[in-house]
Amino acid sequence: MFTAAGNQQAMPASLAIAAVTTLGYAGILAGPALIGFVAHASSLNLAFGGLGCFMLLIAASARLGAATRPA
User: Fold this and answer.
1) H or E segment at 38?
2) Local confidence pLDDT in tens for the 71 residues of the chain
């Protein structure tokens, strides 16, 4: 993520790295709270199952994005 942010041309690299870092910290803080909220509303199995599905979706979308990017 940091390499991709540094290599893009839409904004200065320093601002792009800061944006990636901010999103990473936001995920670290909000992720466990979101898992707890879903687990409280339904079950822990469903919360972790949804997390696994979401991670697979992210991996698939990253692969699609890399395949459609011009060389």
Assistant:
1) helix 13-41
2) 888 888 888 899 999 999 999 999 999 999 999 999 999 999 999 999 999 999 999 888 887 766 666 65
Distances, alpha carbon 66 to alpha carbons 26, 27, 59, in Å: 25, 23, 11
- Contact yes or no for 19/5 (Cβ under 8 A): yes
First to last CA, the chain: 18
Phi, psi (degrees; rounded to nearest 5) at 12? -60, 145
**Which sign does the torsion angle of CA 33, 37, 40, 42 carry?**
negative
